[in-house]
Amino acid sequence: MASSDGTQSPHANIGVVGLAVMGSNLARNLASRPGNTVAIFNRSYEKTQTLMDEHPEAGFVPSADYAAFAASLSKPRTALIMVQAGKGTDAVIDELVKVFEPGDIIIDGGNALFTDTIRREKAVRATGINFVGAGISGGEEGALTGPSIMPGGSAEAWATIGPILKSIAAVAEGEPCVTHVGTDGAGHFVKMVHNGIEYADMQLIAEAYDLIRRGTGKSPAEISEVFAEWNHGELESYLIEITAEVLRQVDAETDKPLVDVILDQAGAKGTGAWTVQTALDLGVPVSGIAEAVFARSLSSKPEQRAAAAELPGPVDTWTVEDADEFIEDVRLALFASKIVAYSQGFDEIVAGAAQYGWDIKKGEIAKIWRGGCIIRAQFLNRITEAYASDPGLVALLTAPYFVDALDRAQGSWRRIVAMAAHAGLPSPAFSSSLAYYDGLRAQRLPAALIQGQRDFFGAHTYKRVDKPGIFHTLWSGDRTEIETEPSSH
Ligand SMILES: NC(=O)c1ccc[n+]([C@@H]2O[C@H](COP(=O)([O-])OP(=O)(O)OC[C@H]3O[C@@H](n4cnc5c(N)ncnc54)[C@H](OP(=O)(O)O)[C@@H]3O)[C@@H](O)[C@H]2O)c1
C-alpha cells in the first residue's frame, strides 16, 4: 500500500474512488484492459481490502488516504469517482482538489444532476484541474463487462480519457459505446434523459404485459413466450429480453409466478423525475416519460389505492375475440408508443443543448446507447440513420422510417387505447403517447380558445392567423379589439 507521505512511485494510469458495487466493478473492468494499472481508494478501508483480497489478479494499487492515492497516479492524474451522488461527490471532489494539480482530471461517474455537474465543473476548472461529468449506464453488470458511457467536460480532458473510456465501454457492432457528448453537464444531461426514456420503455412494457394478461387470460409463463418472440423482431431490446426472464421466473417458496408475489409498488431513484422536471423548465412535452414516472408514484400510494378500490368501473364486459390478433395489436401499440417516448426524449436533448450551448450529435447518442445500457435496442440504429440523413430533423417521429412504422401501427394503437379505456384498464403511457401523437398531427389545436380565455381574464393578448401584430379584446368594455403592439410591417 502507498503510505500517506506519498513515497510510493506513481505508476497507476487511472484511479477509482468509491468501491461500492459500481466502483469496484469499474475498477475490475479497467484493470482487465491491457496497459492499465488501477489505483483504488474508498473512504472506509474495508471495501478496499475486500476488493484486494477477492481480486488479486487485478494488480490494484491501494491507498488509505487521498494523498497516497494522488501519489500513486502518474501525471496527468486521472481519477474516476463512483460514490453516492450529491454530498458524497462534493466531499470527494473537495479532497481530490487538495491533492491534485492543474492538468489532472477528475471524472464523476455517479448519477449527478446535470446542473450540479455544471456547478462543479466551473468550480474545479478555476483550480486548473479538469472536471468531467460522465453518465454511466448498465448497472453493476455493465460496469464490469462494458457500460455505455456519456462523458461531458472539455475537449482537452476527452483527449486524455477517451482512449481509457473506449477500452472499458460496451462494444456495439464494432464501435465502443462512448462519445464526447458535449461540455460541462452535457454527459449527465444525456444520461438523465436516457433514464427517463428507460422509465417510459419499462412502463410501456408493463402495460403491454398487463393488457395481454387481462385480455387473454394467459399465464406469466405464456406471456414470457410472447416477449421472447417479440425479442426476435423490431422490438428486440434488453428490456424485452429481461421481461421474458422475469415473467418466466417461479417463486421457490410458493411455486407461484414470481411476478405475482412481488409487491406492485414501483420504486424510483429520482432520475426519471429529474427528466420530467427539466423538461417542464425547458417547455418540452415528454408526456410518455412523465406518465411513467407518475405511474410509479400512483403504484406507491397503497392507502389511496385501497380507498379507491370500490370506485365504479365499466359496466360492460370486455372480451378479446382473437388472442393472436389482440397480442399483435398490443405489440404494435407498444412499438408506436416507444417511438413517441424516444422522440420526446430526443426533443429534450435538443432543447437542453440549445439552452446550455452543447453541440450534441443526436445520431452519436443513439449509437452509444446500442450496447451496455438498459435501453440498448436494435431500434436505436434507426434513430442514428434518421439523424444521419437529416441532422436538422425537427421531430424524430417525422423521419421516413418512423412515419412508416406509425402508419403500420396506428390502427392497432387506437384499438388498444380504446379497448383499455372501455375495459377500465390503466394504460397511461399508451394513451398519453397516442394523445401526444394526435396533438402533434393536428393542424389546428384548441390552444386558440386558451389564448382567448387568457386574454379575457388576464389581458394576456393573442396573435391572429390572418395578420401580424398583438391584439387584445376589451372584454369588460365594448368588446372591440385593439392592437396592443403594432406590427413593424
Ligand atoms: N448501482 C447502480 O446500478 C448504478 C448505475 C449507474 C450509476 N450509479 C451511480 O454510481 C454511483 C455509485 O453507485 P454505487 O451503487 O456503487 O454506490 P452508492 O451506494 O451510491 O455509494 C456508496 C459509496 O459512496 C461512498 N461515499 C458515500 N459518501 C461518501 C463521502 N462523503 N466521502 C467519500 N465516499 C463516500 C461510500 O464509501 P464508504 O464505503 O466509506 O461508505 C461507498 O463507496 C452513484 O452515484 C450511483 O447513483 C449506480
TrEMBL record:
<keyword id="KW-0560">Oxidoreductase</keyword>
<feature type="domain" description="6-phosphogluconate dehydrogenase C-terminal">
    <location>
        <begin position="187"/>
        <end position="476"/>
    </location>
</feature>
<dbReference type="InterPro" id="IPR006115">
    <property type="entry name" value="6PGDH_NADP-bd"/>
</dbReference>
<dbReference type="InterPro" id="IPR006183">
    <property type="entry name" value="Pgluconate_DH"/>
</dbReference>
<dbReference type="Pfam" id="PF03446">
    <property type="entry name" value="NAD_binding_2"/>
</dbReference>
<dbReference type="InterPro" id="IPR006114">
    <property type="entry name" value="6PGDH_C"/>
</dbReference>
<dbReference type="InterPro" id="IPR013328">
    <property type="entry name" value="6PGD_dom2"/>
</dbReference>
<protein>
    <recommendedName>
        <fullName>6-phosphogluconate dehydrogenase, decarboxylating</fullName>
        <ecNumber>1.1.1.44</ecNumber>
    </recommendedName>
</protein>
<keyword id="KW-0521">NADP</keyword>
<dbReference type="InterPro" id="IPR036291">
    <property type="entry name" value="NAD(P)-bd_dom_sf"/>
</dbReference>
<dbReference type="InterPro" id="IPR006113">
    <property type="entry name" value="6PGDH_Gnd/GntZ"/>
</dbReference>
<keyword id="KW-0311">Gluconate utilization</keyword>
<dbReference type="GO" id="GO:0004616">
    <property type="term" value="F:phosphogluconate dehydrogenase (decarboxylating) activity"/>
</dbReference>
<comment type="function">
    <text>Catalyzes the oxidative decarboxylation of 6-phosphogluconate to ribulose 5-phosphate and CO(2), with concomitant reduction of NADP to NADPH.</text>
</comment>
<comment type="pathway">
    <text>Carbohydrate degradation; pentose phosphate pathway; D-ribulose 5-phosphate from D-glucose 6-phosphate (oxidative stage): step 3/3.</text>
</comment>
<keyword id="KW-0570">Pentose shunt</keyword>
<comment type="subunit">
    <text>Homodimer.</text>
</comment>
<dbReference type="Pfam" id="PF00393">
    <property type="entry name" value="6PGD"/>
</dbReference>
<comment type="similarity">
    <text>Belongs to the 6-phosphogluconate dehydrogenase family.</text>
</comment>
<dbReference type="InterPro" id="IPR008927">
    <property type="entry name" value="6-PGluconate_DH-like_C_sf"/>
</dbReference>
